Amino acid sequence: MTNNTELSTVPSFIRNTVANIHPLDHTFLLHKVKDTWVEISYGEVLEKVDAISAWFLHIGIKKGDRLSLIIENGPNYVYYDQALQQIGAVNTSIYPTLTENEIEYILNDSGARTIICGNPFLFRKVLKVANNCPELIRLIPAFDDFEKFSDKVSLNAGVISFDEVITEGRKLVEQYRSAINAAREAILTTDTSCLIYTSGTTGVPKGVVLTHHNLTQNTINSLIQIPFVEKTDRFLSFLPLSHVFERTIYHIAIHQGSQIAFAQSLELLAKNMAEVKPTILCCVPRLLERIHDRAIKSGTSAGGLKTKIFLWAFEIGKKVRLAQEAGKSPGTILKAQHGVAEKLVFSKIKEKTGGRLKFMVSGGGALPKNIGEFFGDLGIVILEGFGLTETSPVMAVTERHRVIYGTVGRIIPGIEVAIQNVDTKHIYSVQTHDNFKEDTLTEEGEIIVRGHCVMKGYWNKPEETATVIDSHGWFHTGDIGRFFRGNLQITDRLKNMLVNAYGKNIYPTPVENTYLKSPKIEQVFLVGDKREYIAAIIVPAREALQENFNLQNEFFERTEAFVDEKEIVDWIGADIRKYSNELAKFERIKSFKVKRNPFSMEEGEITPTMKAKRKVIEKKYAADIDELYVGEAEED
């Protein structure tokens, strides 16, 4: 393989793969067309990439120009991204779930020149705001019959289908071949590769400027930490490529020569897993919680002997996991018992994932400790990663041989991570990959980082950049945590912290995760800042709710946001009381409302990685939250 020092720009990854890892006819991408999984080779990808690059150059796109994408995961994303990367343009991805106003803001803030639109719904959104975006010169629908939408609108920008871009580009490739090669060679490591707009949990989205150096070094150093990603692996991609976490996985796959299969949708993910049999899956904690809940329900709902075998198997799995975590080998009897548990229970659960998973990577939020332990007992390793868009993103990731559930692993090579006292700014400890010690334990404070992963800054926002990157080069993450047994452990977001009327600090995430152990509960949103006690909005698990109360779909279609039925409130309340016993008294939920439907991206209540937008939710349900504090709280 080419020396890593030569792999310093994003387009160098795929060129190295076809030069040193796989022939051009080797399968790189898989996607489903109607009922068939179609394989796409490296040669087919590069041929389209060069055609699109030629077309970009032909219409006057230059190095540094921002080119936008609002498109679902799939081969078209790869073609468009690789084509703009190799001529030094800047990928400016937009989450498909954003509103028209947010799309308009990003297009104008970035000065995007072109935008590819993945489907009619997204295209119509862009059509409504295109004339308000003066820098936009081309709209590129990636679907058929787009004319029935665009012909009804008088546009300043031109419209051309993605298929036509490729067709026209093929005619131009030889004319622009030298220019494409020269542009690729002229890319500097300090050049901007992409703008990724923050999800706006705390205000107006900001464009995070990530360079080729940020992205390539983050990929290479993450692989030092998890060296067992191989050219024979197959990733199943379903998290949005507009998010930095999935983008990193995409870069890792290209760097290693692994295949990428694109899931059709989140709803079809389970079916797709069984079909493509991935070896690696990257996901957010909420998906793992759903798999856990369904497995528990399936294994225990029948009762009798089947349930006893299921629970016995997980007890055996737990004993094996604990032995391995202690660096011991399970004894002969335990090994034999584990073999039976694997055959009767574990193998059946694993079959639903395709049966080939080596490990899963969880990112984008805190993974509840009990969920990690469940998969560990099952024999599927969950590696947790941690980082932000501003850190390219990976700062730490679990080592496969040193899994400590409830932590996010060891610091990756080449960066420094410190824990700083929030009030005094005293730095308790600075940790690197090289000074790792398994007995390291620090005070809790804000997590700060410096090194190759830190962004160049926020696009056109020097003042905002200066507030998060200090004069010593430390980026202040806004996350609270500590080092535990050498691994980084996240407590919560600094801005999420609630301070009750008595001055007690309460971090919502660990408290919410305690209540999320309940199979009755889907989402928890804590409130209580400057109040006498903690209250919450609770979203019940829909399937469990329907089964327990024989509810029809009409129940969930009612306009009232909250459920008033006493029997449902009491049903949830039983588990609130049960899990409250695991918490300090000042952390316990004393009053709550049951929300009929989950918080959603469509309503602007959560981010694409399922994080609650606290300001949005508190403002939207202000009157309902106030009602939680009328009268006396329920006694302990």
UniProtKB/TrEMBL annotation:
One of its GO terms (cellular component) is membrane. PROSITE patterns: AMP_BINDING. It comes from the Bacteria. Signal peptide: none annotated. Residues 19-459 form the AMP-dependent synthetase/ligase domain. Pfam families: AMP-binding, AMP-binding_C_3. This is Long-chain fatty acid--CoA ligase. It comes from Mucilaginibacter rubeus.
